[in-house]
Amino acid sequence: MAVFDTPQQAFGILRPICVQLTKVQTTENVEHLQAQLQMVSDSALQELQEYVLFPLRFSLKIPGPKRESLVQSVVQCITSILSTTCVRKQDLFHELFSELCTCLSSPSNLPQPAPLSEELKLTVIQALHVLMHSAYEDIILTLYQPSTLPHLGFAVSLLLGLAEHEKAKQIKLAALKCLRVLILQCDCQEHHRLLDADETKQCGDLFASFLPGISIALSRVITGDVKQGHMVTVSAIRLFYLTLSLVMADEQLIRITKDKEKPSADQSRLFELVVHRGAEWVKSTADKLSLLIHKIAEFACVHPHWKVRVALVELVHHLLLRCSQSLVDSVGHLLKALVGLVNDESEEVQSKCHEVLRNAAELRTIAENRALADVLSENLHSLATALPRLMNSQDDQGKFSTLSFLLGSLKLLGPKVNIVLNSAAHLHRLSKALMQVLELDVADVKIVEERCWGPEGSLGQPTASLQPCVQKGKGQKKYFRFFMDERIFLLIQQVCRVLGYYGNLYLLVDHFLGLYGESVVYRKQAAIVLNELITGAAGQGVDVFHERETAASTEDLKGTIVSILEEYTAQANWYLITSIDTEQSSEELLVKQSRAHALPGGANSSSLISSFFPSSDPSPAIRSMNSNIWQICIQLEGVGCFAYALGKEFRLLLASALYPVLEKAGDSTLLISQTAIGTMVDICHACGYDSVRCLINANSDYLVDGISLNLRQAAHQPHASQVFEAMLRHSDATLLPLVEDVIQDVLSTLDQFYDDRVSTFLGVLSTLVAALVQWFVVVKGNKHPQEQNAEQPTSTSPHAPQRQGEGSVTTPMEQDLQQFLLDYSKEKQIAEGNLPALEEEEEVHPSPPEPELNSTGAAGETPLPAHAQIAKEVLERCIHLLSDKSLRVRLKVLDVLELCVTVLRVHENHLLPMAHRAWPALVTRLINDDPLAVLRAFKVLRTLAETCGDFLRRRFSSDVLPKLTSSLVTQAPVSARAGPVYSHTLAFKLQLAVLQGLGSLCEKLDMGENDLNKVADACLIYLSAKQPMKLQEAARSVFLHLMRVDPDATWLFLNEVCCLLPSEPPHTSLHPLKLSGMGRQRTEFTDNVLCLLSELQQRETAAFQARPQEAPEP
Amino acid sequence: MALPPPDPQFVLRGTSAEIHTLHFSCGSQEPDYPLLFSGSSNGLIHIWNLKTRRVDTVLDGHGGKSVYWVEAIYDRDRLLSQGRDQKICLWDLAEGRNTVTDSVFTENVGFCKCSLLRVAQGHWLMAMPGKDLDEIQVLELPSKTSVCTLKPEADAKPGMPMCLKLWQPDFGSCPFLLAGYEDGSVILWNLSEAKILSRLTCHLEPVMSLDFDSEKTKGVSGSSEKVLSVWSLDEQQNLKVQKTQELINAGIADVTIRQDKKILATAGWDHRIRIFGWKKLKPLAVLSYHTATVHCVSFSDHRRPNERLLAAGSTDHRISVWSVYNEI
After folding, report:
1. Which of B11, B12, B321 to probe the A interface (max A CBs under 10 A)?
2. Which of A219, A459, A1019, B211 is the most exposed place for a label (fewest CB within 10 A)?
3. Which UniProt keywords apply (chain A) (predicted)?
4. Chain B residues whose beta carbon lies within 8 Å of the beta carbon of residue A702
């Protein structure tokens, strides 16, 4: 397309169309003109600007109704001209401005926007926008004179009306954008000259007149329907704060003279419209604005779209920066909004907020500004007062924002927070609020119920699975009465830490320790607060805007921590009732009653006693126990916090702090012991120990000291034993030399208190010996028991040749038969005392235990290793306790006894005398005692048999076996008749245990033929198909063991019961066999017997096939 | 009703040998932490840090022979130790050193502990058993020059000295020596004239230990009998028995009066530590913890009276540390 560069050429083209348009105003003509304009260069058009604009303006000015389409195309055309040209003349600018405004207004009601089509409105607004941009700066400024105030006001009100009442988003946006241009705060790319101070003040003066209108309209837009879209709200907020910061800027207001300028005579009427921004005006305006700001902030704070919230942050920033003095009353609202958004869920809002807060803090506008500090502390006070109520009434979201505000205020106050804290009333309010908010929910019965039983599992477990308590998260999950949301707790945590960070530590700790001691109701909360205060004071895990000037010195911190620790571990706060334990002896109860004041007021000792009877709903006593458990947990967590706060310095406090923690690690309440273990891990991390084991080993002297001292006092003995158990559980063999000393103490204390303390100490002994087994037997000698069993068949291999000679179905070779006879005669010779092959025999079948026996035999005089010595001493005590009158004790003793035997297994010289001494008591347990005890005693017997077979053989067969077999025989008919429920009875378990153990016992003890027969007779009944399956299986196992001891006799015995297949004689020279079981009908025993026989046969075959390898004898 | 006797505040273990002597040194400045020196039967001297309750240093300088007297001087930069190897060693402990810088050979085979008295800044007198069995030598430290040798007249025959106590009525005045002998007598020696001022036979058995209160000019001694004897020194420099306190079990290994002269502690062969009021010798407490003979008791010299501790060392290898009667 040709471009006409020179004005002459352009004029040539445009003239006819302009003339045409002046004559006939039609849309076509306008469009024609617009098309032609495309061909004119910008510079040419600039020359012809007024000429071209004339017909267009003319067509707008023609009185009478106009078609909208025409107006629209005319305005569009004007827009396109203006966008490429500049307006250089003031008159033209003013005229165009008012003409465009008129387009929007309805002719009848001037300030109201006309009911025009949306397109037209949009076009006109855009035209205005373009006009403002195409005008020269100085020309634009002429618009901001008192004389043009009506024009401007007209435009402003029109645009506001559009922004407020239009439905279309685009129009709203365009109107707001245009308004923004009007207040000379355009954000477009084009260069705008910055106004100097005077000009700004002039504009400010002018816009002050519009401020009420603008602000009210905008606040309506902002707080309007959320459906209008966030863009509108955002730009409205921007416009709002831009306007405010133009009119209410502090720097302008300072320069306002007291008296209104005298208007010159001719302009007096107009001048009256101009507002004088004197102090009074500022005050009243600020009051009104404060309402609006409050409304806007409240609305935008919770606006679902994050951009709106960002815009709000910007608003706060702007106003704080520019108008903090003029709008001082609103600062509260602004800050509230700001700090409320600090913990917003959107990253952008958060970071923006932080930036602004940091900015504000850096500028020291807040900390230095006394007025603001006052406002903040006043806010804090009112918030603290309202907090309990709010916590009751608000939902979690509401609580979250309330607390965010609290936290933000504290952070903003920074070091100034001490002003607030020094006021007793403020501190009181604040602490009471925290106490109430942090109230724990202690109705959960499960916490009281959950306990960890016995040493199983936890002994010697690697500590890798243990979680530190404090650092990773927040330790045990707590349940609060007033909120569920975890974030709220984190906020409160931050509040406390910030307090600790800035606040006067002594003052705070003193105050909260006071609350801690004041009432049980506050105790847990105060402990939480104290823990966090210390963490904060150590500068850990706090997020603050400005560094404190002086950090708390390590010495101060240590002193404070020591005093808190003393309070925590004081008798009344550390030894609380956490369980209804019937095992606990009377002394314990006495101690408890003296501690009854630790319970909440309602639960006095009488209700405590009533709580010993189970009740359906969580009674106050259970509640108080739950509360006690939590208190201990919180205090334990506190110890972890303190350790982190002090780092390696905490090592010095371990002398007093570690013992109580271990005490709780041995607690039977699961939650407490877990927390305590977590605390130990915390201490490890904080003090630079590699593991809990290292921690315990390195500080075993402190612990041993504590244990030995506490053992001296009856009331503390259970705790001391708990500590000792915990030590053993979390350490390893290297600990043993360190605690030998205290083991002696424990044993001698036990000797003094056989009667009433037995159960406590048995726990310790059991843990101790279990630890010994773990450290010395399982680790070093783990090949011992299993392999012995595995080697048993080979050691009995002399029988192997015999076996295959008799019952095997495979056709025996003649040489096998021959071999058998040869072996037989050889053995017979040996039996007769002819021993040529003895050495050979030994070489071929070296029995593995023998060398060990020899070595221990030789070392009989050498002192026992420490662990075995300990086991021996424990064993000695067990012998005395075996006949205790309490079944529970007897059972426990039997367990310990078994463990002792396991430890002493390799020291036969020491074990046998002890076994000898223990035997009479053990037999009594086996023969006349509660079935439970019999069960355990039988287990001990089996363990004992593994080691001292020879020693036990005769005793067993004379003292125990008759009783066992007879009881088996008498019980058999009962179990045969019994229904399925029988398998849950104790009698059944006893039968089962005896049957399961008898076989291996016979094998271990290498019983004689008579006894084996007795056993076989007694067990045969249990091979009956009428017996319960389990008993049948167990009985089969007895026979399987018997087969190992004497396969031939067993074979014969079984065949006498039942023999379906008549056996072929292995060789023609032998007579066919006649067995009593032959040809019998199927009986109840048939299935099991056949099963056993086939098993026997398989073994024979296996042995037969294995034989050729061992056959080549030297 | 009287309160039950307290438990030890803590117990120090780990010497794996009998404890024969204890000596506190609490330091004079604030950052200093209190130390406890212990000498044991295996010839080792342990330096315990009472803040951490752990051994800081172990000194080995008596060839495995038991150490039965230690005392720190020069604000615990130096340490004197006496052992059964017949040597008295001077240790340099300053700035973490631990070397023997000097030693004196006593040529005495007895059990008598030395006694040290500061006579001037940087000057001490040390009484120690001499070469002959009944002889006592007094040296001036640090020069090691012999001040005098105290030997009873031939006909006195008090036997070996068992325990010594150097004292002076006022700082700077002429020092005296009290010595307990094998025959149960206590002798007051005048050092400048090297002659016996007074002799008091207050026990039938050898005097195991004695202590003297120079303010009240009153002393106490214990022997292997069942009595504790309190005697006083009158203006004429005569010793005379003031009171004897009967005990239940025989044998006092050590007796010490606390610095404030309010109480006194005894170490008993019956495994117990007994506390008496010094004024009237009123029995105050029986502290039982040890499971074997208690060899020594010592009071701490802490600046703050309420942190003054009592330590006792025993054959059972443990040192018990007690906090008794120090709330003022």
Report:
1. B11
2. A459
3. Cytoplasm, Phosphoprotein, Ubl conjugation
4. 53
- Cβ partners under 8 Å of residue A837, min gap 6: A826, A830
Amino acid at A761: F
- Cβ of A317: how many Cβ atoms within 10 Å? 20
User: Which residues in chain A are closer than 8 Å to B13, comparing Cβ atoms?
Assistant: 701, 704-705, 741
**How far is A715 from A618, CA to CA, in rounded Å?**
29
Which pLDDT does position A789 carry in this prediction?
41
Q: Is residue A894 a contact partner of residue A937, using CB atoms and an 8 Å limit?
A: yes
- Opening angle at CA A755, ends A750 and A758, nearest 5: 50
DSSP string, A1028-1086: -HHHHHHHHHHHHHHHHH-HHHHHHHHHHH-B-SPPPPSSTTSPPP--TTBTPPP-TTH
Give every residue of chain A whose pLDDT is below 70, as ranges.
1-3, 64-65, 106-114, 187-194, 257-273, 343, 361-372, 451-476, 545-546, 580-620, 779-814, 834-862, 1059-1082, 1104, 1106-1114
The DSSP 8-state label assigned to residue A539 in this structure reads T
What's the rounded Cα separation, in Å, for the pair A175 and A172? Answer: 5
Please give the pLDDT value at position A841: 44
Which 3 state secondary structure label does DSSP give B312?
Answer: strand
Contacts of residue A742 in chain B, CB cutoff 8 Å?
none
Q: Do B52 and A655 make contact, defined as CB atoms within 8 angstroms?
A: yes
Residue B283 to chain A, least CA–CA distance (Å): 23
- Out of B8, B52, B291, the one facing A709 most closely (by C-beta) is B8
Distance (Å, whole) CA A924 – CA A941: 12
Any B CB within 8 A of A228 CB: no
Q: Which residue from A652, A705, A713 is facing B11, i.e. has the nearest CB?
A: A705
Query: Which of A708, A713, A748 is closest, CB to CB, to B11?
Result: A708
CA angle A143, A147, A152 (to 5 degrees): 45
The one-letter amino acid at A158:
L
> How much of chain B is in helix, strand and coil states, percent to nearest 5?
0, 55, 45
Is A705 in contact with B53 (Cβ distance < 8 A)? Answer: yes
- Name residues whose C-beta falls within 8 Å of residue B160's C-beta, 6 or more positions apart in sequence: B110, B112, B129, B133, B134, B181, B182
What ipTM was assigned to the predicted interfaces of this complex?
0.84
Selected for mutation to probe chain B from A652, A707, A709 (highest B CB count within 10 Å) is A709
> What contacts A739, CB < 8 A, 6 or more positions away?
A700, A704, A724, A727, A728
A704 inside 8 A of chain B by CB: yes
Task: Work out the pLDDT band at B319, boundaries 50, 70, 90.
Answer: very high
* Distance of alpha carbon A885 from alpha carbon A882, whole angstroms: 9
Is the separation of the CB atoms in A1020 and A1027 below 8 Å? no
The minimal CB distance from A701 to the residues B8, B14, B291 is found for B14
Distance CA B279, CA B260 (A): 12
Interface check for B34 against chain A (CB to CB < 8 A): the answer is no
**In A, which residues are within 8 Å of B53 by CB distance?**
655, 701-702, 705
In angstroms, what separates the C-alpha of B14 from chain A's closest C-alpha?
Answer: 9
Q: What are phi and psi of B277, to 5 degrees?
A: -75, 135
A358 interfacial to chain B (CB closer than 8 Å): no
- Chain B residues whose CB is inside 8 A of the A705 CB are 10-11, 13, 53
Q: What is the DSSP track for A670-719?
A: HHHHHHHHHHHHHHHHHHT-SSHHHHHHHTHHHHHHHHHHHHTSGGGHHH
Distance, CA of A986 to CA of A453 (rounded, Å): 22
Chain A contact for B6 (CB, 8 A cutoff): no
